[in-house]
Amino acid sequence: MPGDPEAIVSVTPEIALDVGHTYAGGLGVLEGDKFYAAARLGLKYYAITLLYTGGYVDYDYDEVRGFTAKPQDQSDLLRELSKSGEVTVELQGSRVRLSVWEYRRGSATAVFLKPEDPRFARLAERLYIESDKQERFLKYTMLAKGAAEYVKRFIGLENVQYIDMQEAYTAMLPLALRIPGRYRLIVHTPGPWGHPSFPNAFFREEYGYHFIEDPVVLTSVGAALAWEVILVSAKHYDVMKKVIPHFIYKARFITNGIELGRWMHPALHRSLERGELTVNTLGAIRQSVRAELFKLLKSRKPGLREGSMIVLWARRLTRYKRPYFAARLVEEDRDSGVVYVLGGKAHPHDEEGLAYMRQFKELEKKYPNVVYFHDYDVARAKLLLQGSDLLLFTPFSGWEACGTSFMKAAVNGVPSLASRDGGILELVVDNVNGWLFGEDVRDISSLSGERAAKVDERDYAELKARFEEVKRLYFDEREEYLRISLNAILTFVPRVDMTRVLKEYYPDLAR
């Protein structure tokens, strides 16, 4: 509110709170973790986004129609929000009122902007789901202009220390609000979907700018107008040298992290803080946590064996995550001592992602030791990542900016079998706190074609061989497996704690 000193503003297309459905994947979960950590640290933190009345996407399933996409129910979120006022922005020559809704936790405020004009209500109906390029442009123009007005009216320009633009979709903010020396662009993916472009006529009509380029790439706009570009892992920084070489001089990396209190099982957290965590105590706690997950799994597949090894693959279903590795492993490894837990959903316009959903569902129906959660969300992720025995982390090398699911697993004593990508390379030491497979590719080559197919074959062969090693360890040398699990906790916790991340982002404010 007016008078607040040292305010931090984070403008984001998505954020995953403990209520509601205003996120699609990793970016939203990361921003939610930052929000709760900022509240814990007493930071004056404002996360600004749109109020998506239909959320992102859920799916119904029946045997005849298969998966059917539908909006998400936001009633639980709406009950938690309080209206704090309105701002007015100009869109397509019209004055548009945006109501301002806030979700507060201590010193942190999540701000949701909602268009009240019926002509523009569609812009905030769904996250990442638009009918055409113009609608997408107007959606993020509304976010940019709305955020600019909120900063001026509710925070005060004189009180702002940082304005962080999360991903390129928020990069139009400096076109609406010029505050030199305050903006930073945070790039969360090397993939082309994270670097959208729009016709320069759109910018001329909405902002009055006559760009030379046509189309205009939002990442270039944001990076040019920011004083700093932040990438999210050491390898991501290396890969992005070939994507934004003209802006790399102003870039650095801050490796992502997680909010431990949100993701680490309370019993493990308490034991670690008391200095009581050993191989023996870890084994006892893990047995209890696994029982919580097994209860859920048996509600879906009553015949599952209690002593089975629980192997988890759960990500957003898109090609570069390589869900086909998990599917192939399920088909080829018919060891009844392993339960495969699959999780994730696709964007409703991603035909390949939808095909992976159907494939996972068929595997669940075909095999008694496979369980698939198409309704994978934050609440489900907590239970699955805390209770499994092994996480499969399989992105095509070069395409994963950082990843945090392996961090959430590791702090719960669930080691990963991971491809050499993203933040894995900074955190996993092979055979010490997890296992590695595959090549370390340092570019974003095509995900299809002969080269990609050859990389896939070599990577999968190593994945399968390493998986056999991990299974042998789990069943025949359980104490050694638990030692690796303990190492995962002890080595990850101090390095992935969101406190460390916020201190690197805001060294003069976070203490």
Automatic annotation (TrEMBL):
UniProt family annotation: Belongs to the glycogen phosphorylase family.
Pfam families per the UniProt record, alphabetical: Phosphorylase (PF00343)
Gene Ontology biological process: carbohydrate metabolic process
InterPro entries (alphabetical): Glyco_trans_35, Glycogen/Maltodextrin_Phosph
Gene Ontology MF, one: glycogen phosphorylase activity
Cited PANTHER family: GLYCOGEN PHOSPHORYLASE
Keywords annotated in UniProt: Transferase
SUPFAM superfamilies for the chain: UDP-Glycosyltransferase/glycogen phosphorylase
Protein name according to UniProt: Glycosyltransferase
